[in-house]
Amino acid sequence: MAPHTKILAAYAKSGRASCKKCSNAIEASSLRLALVTKDPRGYDITKWHHFECFTVSPDLLPSAELISGFSSLKDSDKERLKKLISEALEDKEEVSDKDESEKNKKEKRKIADIQETDVEENTEPEEDKIKKAKVSDNEESAKNQRGKRKLADVQETDGKEDTDAEEDRIKRKKSSVSVKELELEMAFSITDVKSHYKGAKLLPKWKAFQTAIYLERDEGTIDSEKIAAFDFDGCLAKTFVKRIGAEAWSLMYPSIPEKLQSLYNDGYKLVIFTNESNIDRWKNKRQTAVDSKIGRLEGFIKLVKVPIQVFIACGSSANTADPFRKPKIGMWSLLKQHFNSGLPIDMDKSFYVGDAAGRKNDHSSADIEFAKAIGLKFYVPEEFFPV
After folding, report:
1. Alpha-carbon distance 61 to 3, whole Å?
2. For strand 309-313 and strand 269-275, is the pairing parallel, antiparallel, or unpaired?
3. What does the alpha-carbon distance between residue 17 and residue 383 come to, in Å, rounded to a whole number?
4. Does pLDDT of 152 surpass 90?
5. What are phi and psi of 328, to 5 degrees?
6. β-strand 227-230 against 269-275: which pairing, if any?
7. Cis-peptide into 327, omega within 30 deg
8. NCBIfam families per the record (predicted)?
9. If both were cysteines, with which of 33, 101, 174, 370 could 327 make a disulfide (CB 3.0 to 4.6 Å apart)?
10. Is residue 283 scored above 60 in pLDDT?
């Protein structure tokens, strides 16, 4: 266990949090246990579990009374916790005894093996000596044959060097062309920037580039080596598939504004990377889809009171060639190459938070794959934001 890890006991305030072991929801008012650790930035990361799913480490907690929140529990639940800790301590003692016994057995076997080896070394049969002599002769013969083959290989290699060199030059040339083509795909020209997306008008400060929409620099927006990046739907905001409109959203976690403000004050550039295929798919209602998505994002930024750079990937999931739709990293490339003043990004301090982590009840694994493709540390929202 990490030195700053502690255990927390509390009754679930709602049924929103899920168990980190079984991934099922933790029923409201039920007893839950959490491991609370410090992340590299000093924030608490709380991982809730069902009581039945929680595994106690006796090294971390020798007494139930040391659990945070223990005093506020019902007497019956206090007894359950005491029993849980007691059983964990008993299991540890049993394992310790078994380990000690096994260690003693290994030591005895080791001594016996050494004694047996000493006897065998002094009584090596004569026929074994003869076999060793024959093996030595065979090895010498094989060595001579390898020497002859090596000489032949060297002579043959001299004739191939020119051909291999030419092949290497061709490969390098092809590789150079591939890299150049990739850079052209991410090339950003002001002449390619539009104030509308396929006929749908964008609000002021919002622009379209290829199949992406982005928010221009707002007042207070900073560039930084430290990037705090987030998904939007299901991560920062609770939205609904069948409900549309700029107001059809709510804050995912109450702690979000304070957490984002803290990151901003610590010098992080805040960024949202979000997919929105409805903008492309709703050909007859594209303006509605655009207004709905951008309206929600603007409402969120206004609520949290911190400037955030936003990128929206509008392409459909059916278009696998779209470079911007997560898990493709096109939106990240735009940020890195054209929207961060060329500052090198500190990957050790930067991170990405998203809800699509490929878990049992997740709609996809796009967010975690996006983070992996970039090389960013990844968190799920219920882990990153205090519940």
Report:
1. 12
2. parallel
3. 10
4. no
5. -60, 150
6. parallel
7. yes
8. DNA-3'-Pase, HAD-SF-IIIA
9. 370
10. yes
Q: Which two tokens stand for residue 354?
A: 């998203």
Q: Is the pTM for the entire model greater than 0.70? A: no
Candidates 293, 347, 281; CA nearest to 318 is: 281
Supply the mean pLDDT for the chain.
Answer: 79
d(CA 348, CA 370): 16
- The reported pLDDT for the residue numbered 46 is 79
Which residue pairs, CB below 8 angstroms and at least 24 apart, start in 250-258?
Answer: 251/300, 251/303, 252/381, 252/385, 253/381, 253/382, 253/385, 253/386, 253/387, 255/385, 255/386, 255/387, 256/304, 256/385, 257/303, 257/304, 257/305, 257/306
Tell me what pLDDT residue 119 has.
45
User: How is residue 225 written in tokens?
Assistant: 């080596």
18: how many CB neighbours lie within 10 A of its CB? 19
Q: Is the pLDDT of residue 99 over 90?
A: no
Beta-bridge mates of residue 164: none
Strand pairing category for 193-194 and 206-209: antiparallel
Closest CA to 225 of 161, 184, 268, 188: 268
Q: What's the burial of 302, exposed, middle or buried (CB within 10 Å: 0-12/13-18/19+)?
A: exposed
Quick one: what percent of the chain has pLDDT higher than 70? 70
Report the distance separating Cα 301 and Cα 236, nearest Å: 10
Distance CA 60, CA 32 (A): 18
What is the rounded distance in angstroms from the CA atom of residue 74 to the CA atom of residue 54?
A: 19
Token pair for 197: 């997306």
* Residues sharing a CB contact under 8 Å with residue 311, sequence separation 6 or more, in sequence order: 212, 213, 214, 215, 271, 272, 273, 274, 324, 331, 334, 335
Q: Is the dihedral of CA 172, 174, 178, 181 positive or negative?
A: positive
